[in-house]
Design brief:
122 residues, mainly alpha, 4 helices, 90% helix, flat
């Protein structure tokens, strides 16, 4: 019984830490704030354009993947800066790769958006 209680309490703590990290991201990180704003705009456009349920699934997935990639990029950059605060070519390389992953996500999100919205204007 005690281990079950500890498991439950640890899950509550995990959610608390995750919510704290979420709040930090959406209130202090400019790249995340920009992506959240873009996600909100695209959600509004989705309602205005009356996109289908399948299109909503792809749009939400694209927005989510971009936000996750940007969040992980931010975490990697913060950790790299903590480990080696001065400029270092290898740290720069790691940060560039991390940013590249977020860029990949953004490129594919744009492609998904074009696939969804171009036919609505043609």
């Amino acid at each position: 019984m005690n281990s079950e209680r500890n498991f439950f309490l640890n899950r509550i703590k995990s959610v608390k830490y995750a919510a704290k990290g979420f709040w930090i991201l959406i209130t202090s990180e400019k790249s995340i704030i920009a992506q959240v704003i873009i996600g909100i705009i695209m959600t509004i456009i989705g309602f205005l354009m009356n996109i289908s349920a399948t299109e909503w699934l792809f749009q939400i997935m694209a927005i989510s993947i971009v936000l996750v990639a940007e969040s992980l990029n931010t975490a990697i950059e913060k950790m790299a800066d903590f480990v080696h605060p001065d400029y270092h070519t290898k740290i720069g390389f790691i940060k560039d790769i991390s940013a590249g992953a977020a860029f990949f996500a953004a490129i594919f999100a744009v492609i998904i958006g074009l696939i969804i919205y171009i036919p609505k204007f043609i």
